[in-house]
């Protein structure tokens, strides 16, 4: 529960996410208040890098500019989760693709660790980075597996 409750302290997650919503509206024309399929951005790696990268860098800058935010989110894992959540939310809303959002989440974790050298206390950051290498390896919820009968999968 320490990860879930801290994320909602003082509306910090809201602030970071609203920044992301403004970013996708200004740059890509995605109207998050009135979603439409025609507004969706194609979920490419470049788009994930752009949106998640912008959200992550903004959040890290905000934590550095306002040290009291660091006091609200006193653990590195809490900060990492909040930053990754706003990055993943913004990416998935812009693309309409949950896998793109997941990749935005893990890209944010990697950027956070690269920028601040760690994610959690005493090396307890496995839970924050354990999925990035597997997020695109098998995608059973979309793509080819839906269209190919299971009897022919072994021949692929």
UniProtKB/TrEMBL annotation:
MF terms (GO), sorted A to Z: coenzyme-B sulfoethylthiotransferase activity
Annotated ranges, domain Methyl-coenzyme M reductase alpha subunit C-terminal: 1-119
Example GO BP: methanogenesis
InterPro entries: Me_CoM_Rdtase_asu/bsu_C, Me_CoM_Rdtase_asu_C
Superkingdom in the source lineage: Archaea
One Pfam family this sequence matches: MCR_alpha
Identification of the protein by name: Methyl-coenzyme M reductase subunit A
UniProt organism field: uncultured methanogenic archaeon
